[in-house]
Amino acid sequence: MSVYTKIVALLDDKFGIAADEVTETTTFEELDLDSLDLVEFSMAAEDELGVKIEDEEAAELKTVGDAVKLLESKGASV
């Protein structure tokens, strides 16, 4: 399973966003996720993938692809 697949699964589990609504270029804004939702997403990703996401890093995430790149750069384990 890839980091991208894990993120898509998290978005479905936590926010009810179907996998077919998500691509790497999909913005969190397009998914109707606000800043509080992004904090919840970040915490879930930390738990699921075993990495720490700083608040400043989470605030910079604009697309699903941004999240994938950040998590992969931190050595996320899937």
Name a few traits of the molecule.
PP-bd_ACP; single chain; mainly alpha; ACP-like_sf; 56% helix; globular; Non-ribosomal Peptide Synthetase Peptidyl Carrier Protein, Chain A; acyl carrier activity; cytoplasm; 78 residues; 0% strand
Q: Specify the structural class.
A: mainly alpha
Low-pLDDT stretches: none
Number of helices, where a helix is a run of at least 4 consecutive DSSP H or I residues? 4
How many domains would you count in the coordinates? Answer: 1
User: In percent, how much strand structure appears in the residues?
Assistant: under 5%
Radius of gyration: 11 Å
**Bulk shape:** globular
Judging by the overall fold, what is the CATH architecture?
A: Orthogonal Bundle
Number of strands: 0
CATH-assigned homologous superfamily: ACP-like
Largest sheet: none
Order of helices and strands: HHHH
Helicity, in percent? 55-70%
Gap from first CA to last CA: 6 Å
CATH class: Mainly Alpha
